[in-house]
Amino acid sequence: LPNFTQSFNLFTTVFLSIILEAIPFLLLGTFLSSIIEVFISEKFFEKYIPRNRFAALLMATVIGLIFPVCECAVIPIAARLIKKGVPVYFAVSFILAVPIINIPVMLSTYYAFSGQTLPFLLRVGCGFFIAYVIGLVISVGKKERAWLRPTAGELHCHHCRDAGENAAAHEDENDDGVAESPAGRIPEAQPERHYAAPSRPGVVLVSDPPETAATSAPAPTRPKARAKLARVLDHSVDEFFDNGKYLVMGAAIASLFQTFVPRGALAGLTQSPVLSSAAMGAIAYVMSICSQTDAFVARSFMGQFPAGAVVGFMVIGAMMDIKNTAMLGKVFKKRFIAILFAMIFGLGVIASTIINLLSGGVT
Amino acid sequence: MKTRVNLERIVQCLLLLSLFMMFDSLLTTNAIGLYLHPRFNTAATAATIALALLFFWRLVGLFTFRKNTPVRLQYIAFLAIPALFLLSPQQPLDASFASLRGASVDNATLYANPQATAAPPPGSLARSMPVPDQPPAEEPAASEALVDHSHEPPLIADSLSFVPVLKEIFDDPGKYQGRRLIVYGWKFSTDEVAANRFIIARLGIFCCAADAEVVGIICQTEKPSALIDNVWYRFEGILRMEKPADRTDVDLEPYLVLESYKPITPPKDKYVYLNQY
Known about the structure:
The structure holds two protein chains of two kinds. Chain A has 15 helices and no strands. Chain A has helices at 2-39, 42-48, 53-62, 71-83, 88-97, 103-112, 117-140, 158-162, 210-214, 224-260, 273-287, 294-300, 307-319, 322-328, 334-358. The longest helix of chain A is centred in the first third of the chain and has 38 residues, at 2-39. The two termini of chain A are 41 Å apart. Chain B is α/β, with parallel strands linked by helices. Chain B has seven helices and seven strands; from the N terminus they run H-H-H-H-H-H-E-H-E-E-E-E-E-E. A five-stranded mixed barrel of chain B has the order 2-3-4-6-5. Helix content of chain B is 29%, strand content 19%. At the A-B interface, helix 1, helix 6, helix 8, helix 10 and helix 12 of A face helix 1, helix 2, helix 3, helix 4 and helix 5 of B.
């Protein structure tokens, strides 16, 4: 019983610490995602994302320099981008690169290694390379949207579900949040639907009975800003819960590992360039540490693991860990996640092993 | 207009309220330090405000939806957060966690502060320490060893000063040769140090308790077994330096020759916080 109590206390402390750290960033991600949904049209992305896939991938991998979000926030945003018509390969490269190639993470890596530039450059270089290559591989596929879960397009559109519609209905809305006909015209006396609460003047659900709709004021009289804010808040709540459940599950699994698996369990693998890289990748995956701080933890492995394996820890862990694997499950099919995991892990281990070999296994 | 209650929204309301109360309670009681680095207080405060906003938004819209929806199972996962929060003893991680991390005892973590000098990383204690049953490496040159620190007050490494004081010592070990040091921490035994040595340890966190690392300084005494593992002590002794046997990038590394110790009540804030920027 004492052991159980001790383990339980350890588990709850680690679990709550992961949750408490992640929730602010999850909220940030859901707010940003909702703002994208409400305020940015598909045309915006069509206009600014290059049609050339090589240029688009370059953009996806470095966009974190002006859009710094961590891995908890990046998945809801990427999911929203996909829904807005952004290519899947762009979104995947964005998910993989942004947690590494952004200013706060780059600075933390630089500081963690006492101002040494090599670990910093290796991390950024490997992160860029892996994110770019994986995006490129995905872009070769002709049916990249087949990897999305059927519900991914809906993205927890609560009100659509309530109204018995699908999320495509959202895409019929113009910039004012007013539903348009397929021809792009606003039907006469057509009220807004979905994200505005029906109690407000001029706002009703499409599923409302005709007499209710008829009593509503015409859409143009409704304050645009208020309706858009309402949509942002509604989206944010739904998205918070939809993404959060995966965060909770991931945090629970990571906490179980941290509670019951000693870090030294993998210490026997440190002599091999390949196995040490794989071991560090596995540790990073299990620990699920935020990419802004993992460099400090990685540095604590210096002296025990070869340099390449430490770089692998910082690259693989930032791109994929238990908690964001669970969150990816909301957007992509399981098979795709398994392939993505294999590519990240495989490329990460290869890159780490090459560094190990080039550095002569220096720790 | 017929008004119905939407069950799913009620569940969302309750969960948002519980999360808001959890954050608020942790912030107002300062217990958030058990889980997060203080630099996350701003983010936690922002999250509290955001949760309150979302809660009130859902509350306002609670009775305005005219179609009921089933409560999805996903909310069970969220119940785990307030449930574990209420069941949790609200205690910091202790030595049992350090044991899980035992293989990574590493003073390099002390250098996480960007204010640290650009000196080469000191590497891990584990590697730099002599293997058991081997005598410590030679002490530094006589000119360094003979610096008289008797007129200087002792260095004190308590909860607040643990990281900066040890960082300073590791940054410039020669300067502190022979200096008296008082350290507050617990005894952490590990096979990776010589039989007459142990680590005076604290758990340092970078971001949250999940990334806690053992940080500390080697302590040498004739009878380490007289001290109990994982018990908090006030350690007092003289700093000595040694040349690491297997390192080329570090000239000297410090250790404390123990002169006296006494058990103490564990401090209120058991962690030390790294990476304070």
